[in-house]
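Standup, Tuesday
Yesterday: got the pipeline producing structure tokens again.
Today: sanity-check two examples.
Blockers: none.

Example 1:
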Amino acid sequence: MEVLDPRFRHYMLQEIHAQPRTALEAVAQYLSPENRTKSIAGIALPEEQVQKLERVSIIASGTSRHAGMVGEFMLERLARLPVKVDFASQYCYRDPLTEHNELTVLLSQSGTTADTLSALRQAKSKNARTIAICNVQDAPLAREADGVLYTHAGIEVSVAATKSFTAQLIALYALGVHLGHTRRSLSAQETRDHMNDLMALPEKIEATLACAAAVEVGAKKMKDAKSFLFLGRDISYPIALEGALKLKETSYIHAEGMPTGEMKHGPNAMVDEHLPVVMVLTRDATDPQSTLRWERSVALLEEIAERGVQVTAIVCQDDVATVAKHANSVFAVPAASTLLLPVLEIIPLQLLAYHIAVLKGMNVDSPRNLSKSVTVE
């Protein structure tokens, strides 16, 4: 078992702060030192099979499913393949249809998750090619899949997944670049650019952790709330879901995540001064579509702030001054490309869940009724 560093009160906090190192170790495994293009050992997909792929299914549960939802954006935009994300517990029972040239990607931190193993066997019985994304060497999921992509996150003691989640995002991004390079949906220059972005990621995670003190202060403002709403647009929507889940797991506070664009389709009626709202408001300033999405989200922020709603915003560093005019708390992350921003966005939300739980006196590392690996369906 990992030793708790005396600098940290709990394993969860230690594992949040370990993410620059685990990201560095993962990136070192995925990148080819010779040409920084595509070097992912173990996925067992010959080039001709990759070129014939027609769609991808991603199957997982809990936090791993949220990673898979981010992966949907990554793989569709990098590899230009249609992607569907499913709950492992649903996939097992609905007799899914599979295509002849379909790739099924199954995510599990432990590799022993019962419903994900059942889904793997279901997919293999229908002749889908399977890849496991897993954190544990030689776990059942890794042994039974056709190929495996290890996340290299190291031992994670806290039940609430933190470093294993960001490691899954990095693995999915690396897989997307590999598929895109092999399928020629990415040019050689685009592949190099994506790999350079990945190489810069550990340093950006380290910079993101500089928000830790501000998050601790912000948590004190919110610790007595009975319910939270987390909002994210586009690829940030799964991060809103994961932020809500982290709060539920650690603090036992009801929290819901939803797409920012869905607010005016009903949920807006719920929002008042008694419901804190956490908005993921990052953008890739080099991407006009990202900026357009950001502007629409800021307009919603202004609207709900006028009602006296307590708003917490996750923003890129250059947008702090603009958003701080309307939000009660603002936590900054470095600039990054659209597809890698989720890796940074989740870190303040992990810290927020941790500090609220500690303030409420909860057992942060071992929440009630939960275990690290769900081995029964």
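Example 2:
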Amino acid sequence: MTLVSVVIPSYNHERYIRQAVESVLFQSHSDLELIVVDDGSSDRSLDYLRGVRDSRFRLVEQANAGAHNAINRGLAMAKGDYLAILNSDDIFYPDRLAVCLHRLRAGVDLVATWLEVINHKGKVLGVKEGWQNMLPWPITPLHGQLTVLDAFTINLLQTNFVSTTSNMVFSRRLYESIGGMANLRFVHDWDFLLRAVCDFRCELIEMPLLQYRIHATNTISSNRAWMLFEICWVYAVHTSAVMSRLLRVATDAEFARAEVNFMGSAINLQGNDRVLWMILQFMKQQRRAGCQDPEMLLLENATLRQEFIRYIVV
């Protein structure tokens, strides 16, 4: 058997946490460990979690530090050959891990699947088929060589069609190479994926194996300006690296032309092009001054980040 570690970052989802936990413990692939990191819940989530009795289950309680921190703590504790994340309001299909493991054992390092989108009551709203439908914002469809080269990667650069940290199962070697989640509130999953596709084989399984829940308290609903800033940050940080992976045989001139065309026509910043160029200019100036990771300053310095967010168009 192959040990799979599943990490659930839990925060104030007493209504949904039992379904999430049981969807892991009742997987057809039973060689697993489930690590739940409760991130300072103030509801009755812990009443249930403290009562779970399964030798494969571990509960960690911490003061509220954010989803990325809770995920990273769980991943650092994980012992599995393969790792997965499940948000505390989502649900695994019973065969999710078994199907994903089949592809991972064949040489893929990260898999995502189609999603069954449900509401707060569990009613099915539709099936999200990767980049084919239900995109988080409108984009211009890509045609030509880039799409042929690697559909997963180029479509991921356009928009986060994977949608959620719940929709990733990946190898330990990938995690040990790229690290965990960055200090991002809304797009830590997208950032993680874009780091992964630069050096590892990633694949979309064309069947729904996860129920992704939409409800009024989803994190993505809490601060639209901050979310749009993080989208601009992702494009500023990752576009060149991902494009260079796709165009490794291109000349410098061909690469520059493709990058400009992509930035100009294939992404949708929802009216915030100026903020993207501000971030790019800031990073360029900081590197000239000797800063190795200027993009991290924007995540770690709240005052500096707010100077950019105030220019966001919502």
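Quick observation on example 2: The CA atoms of residues 222 and 236 lie 23 Å apart. The chain has two domains: 4-217, 224-309.
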